Amino acid sequence: MTTTSSALQMLMVRSLDGDAAAYRQLLAGCQTWLTRYYARRMAPSQIDDLVQETLMSVHTKRASYDRTRPFLPWLAAIARYRWIDQLRKTGRAGEVELDDDLSVESDEESVGARLGLARLLDQIKPEQALVIRMVKIQGLSIAEAATLSGQSEPLVKVNIHRGLKRMSALVESE
Amino acid sequence: METRNLIDSLVVDLKPVRSIKTSSGITVALVATFVAALGVIAVFGARTDILAGAPDPIVVIRCILLVLLGLATSFAVTAAARPSVGNGSNGWVWALAAAFAMPLAAILLYAYHMMTAQPFAKGDMDFSYGPHCLAISAASAVLIGTVQTLWLQRGAPTNPYRSGWLVGLASGSLGTFAYSLHCPSTSIYYIGLFYALAVGLCAVVGRLVVPRLIRW
Question: What is the average pLDDT across A99-111?
C-alpha cells in the first residue's frame, strides 16, 4: 500500500470527483498512515477507534481539502485535531485510567509515545505531572496517588484534570 | 465495527464534492458587511460629509483601518477552515498592529494634553455616543459573525480557539466599520476608546462563543 504524499494527493483529487476505487485505495492508505501516527501517541487499544473516527472526519470534511496542496499535511492536521479531541475527552473523564498495556509496551512506537508524553509532562506543574504519572501511566488509584503524593483526593483529581487540559493546550499550540 | 467495513460504508457514501473556496468565505463576509452597513444607514442615517462625497480625513482613515483589519482577519478565518501545515495566514497580525494606531494616537495626545495642560478642543471629550457606538457595532458584528461562523462550519477548523478570536476580530472590525459610516464623532479620543472597545469586546465574545459552534 503506497502512502506517499503525491500518490495520496492524486487519489484524493480523484475521490473528490467521485471515483470510488480511488477513494477505497485512499482510505486504506490513510488507515496505514494513521495507525502509525497514533501508535506514537496513544495506548494501543485506543488506536483502532481513533483511526476509525479520523477516517469518518476525512470523509465528512473532505471538501476542506485544497486540491493544489499536498495531501499528508491536511491528513496530519485532521489526525492531530482528532487526537487533541481524544485528549480532551480523557481529561474530562478524570477517573478513567489508561490501559495497562501502555506501561508494559516496549516497542519503538510506545517508546516514542512515552518520550512525547514525558516532554509534555515536563512542561506542566510538577504536582500535576506527578499525579498524572501515578494515575494515568502507572495505573494507581486516586486514593493511592493521594497517599503517595501527599495531596488530598479532590486535589489529585483537580491536578489531573488541569494537567491534562494544559497538555492538550500545549499540543494544540505546537 | 471493523475498519474495513467502515471503509466499505464510506466508499458507498461517496459523492463528488467541490472544495470550499477562500473567495466564498471572503464574499460572505463582504456581503454581510454590506447588509449591515445598509441597515445602519437605513435606520440611523449616514454622516453628512460622506453623503456629500467629502468625508473628514479621520473618517477615511478609520474606515480604511477597520476594513483592512476586517479583511485580513476574514482571510485568516477562511484559511482556518482548510487545515494544512504551512497554510497559516498571519497578515491579520500586521493589520491588527496598524489598527492600534488610533488608540495609540489617542493615548499619546491625551498624555501630551495632560503634560502641557492645554485645553481639549470642543467635542473632543464628548463620549455621549459611546453606548450607541457599542450597541450598533455589536449588532452589526453579530450579523457578520453569524454568517462567518456558518461558513466556517462547512470547513474543518483545527484550532477552534484561534478561529473564535479571528471571527470575533473580523466581525467586530467590519461591524464597527458599518457603524462608523453613521458615527457623528471625529474625536481621536472617542475613536481610540470606543472603536477599540467595540472590536475588543467582539473578539472576546468570538473567543467565548464561536469555538463550541465550530467543533466537529
Answer: 41
Nearest alpha-carbon partner for B124 in B151, B142, B105, B147: B105
From B13, B81, B215, residue closest to A64, measured CB to CB: B81
Total structural domains in chain B?
Answer: 1
Q: What is the DSSP string of B83-103?
A: --TT----HHHHHHHHHTHHH
Contacts of B9 in chain A (CB under 8 A): none
Tens of pLDDT, residue by residue over B14-72, are 999 998 988 999 999 999 999 999 999 999 999 999 999 999 999 999 999 999 999 99
For chain A, where do the domains classified as CATH 1.10.1740.10 start and end? Answer: 1-92
Are A76 and B85 a contacting pair at CB < 8 A? yes
Could you tell me which CATH number the domain at A1-92 has? 1.10.1740.10
- Where does A94-174 sit in CATH, by number? 1.10.10.10
Do A66 and B161 count as a contact with CB atoms less than 8 A apart? no
Would you state the cell numbers that stand for residue A64, as one nine-digit string? Answer: 476542506
- Name the grid cell of A139: 495505573
CB-closest option in A18, A23, A172 to B159: A172
Is A18 in a helix, a strand, or coil?
A: coil
CB B66 within 8 A of CB B137: no
CA–CA distance, A110 with B110 (Å, rounded to integer): 61
| pLDDT for the residue numbered A171 | 64
Nearest chain A CA: its distance from B5 CA (Å): 10
Q: Which residues of B touch A56 (CB under 8 A)?
A: 6, 10
Give the Cα separation of B166 and B204 in Å (integer). 10
Measured between alpha carbons, how far is B188 from A30 in angstroms, rounded to an integer? 56
By C-alpha distance, the chain A residue nearest B158 is: A81
pLDDT exceeds 90 at position A116: no
Domain membership of residue B103 as a residue range: 20-214
Respond yes or no on whether ipTM tops 0.90.
no
Contact between A29 and A46 under an 8 Å Cβ cutoff? The reply is no
Which of B3, B19, B86 comes nearest A65 by C-beta?
B19
Task: Give tens-digit pLDDT for B108-137.
Answer: 999 988 888 888 887 788 888 889 999 999
- The Cα–Cα gap between A16 and A67 comes to 9
